Amino acid sequence: MTGVKTSVYTYRVLGLASMYNLTQILNMFGVFMTVKDVIEQKLTSGFDVGYLTVENESHNHNVPDGSESHFKVVLVTDDFKGVNKVKQHQAVYKVLALELAGEVHALALHTYDLELWQKTTQAPMSPDCMGGSK
To answer: What's the structural domain count of the chain?
Structure first.
């Protein structure tokens, strides 16, 4: 994972964010990651994660096969203790700003602190696509 951290650091230092998304930059440095992998890496780096799932739900939508544009994220962290849902989601949007400005079209966010997650234990199912599911 050192290569990833080095590439992310280089990406920021060189100011390449305005020209390329993170996945493209990592690929240039020989680090091949899916968008899902990048989301997982960034959330793990950005929060003290107790539980995390990132699910590519693109196959449920009217997009080409192999797309990585629609994701469901379940993020459990005590960083969210006492923080309202809007602020929790804003914190995630900040960490994933480049992906949301680029290849990620839809992000279903389910955020919890550890105490609430222990009472909940699972996130709700994603609704059917309203834009023409397969």
So the answer is: 2
- State both tokens at 77: 């962290």
- CA 53 to chain CA mean position, Å: 9
pTM above 0.85, yes or no: no
Task: For residue 66, give its domain range.
Answer: 34-120
pLDDT tens string 50-87:
999 998 876 566 666 766 667 889 999 999 999 999 99
Neighbours of 54 (CB within 10 A): 20
Give burial (CB, 10 Å; 0-12/13-18/19+) of 86: exposed
Residues 105 and 86 placed together within one structural domain of the fold:
yes
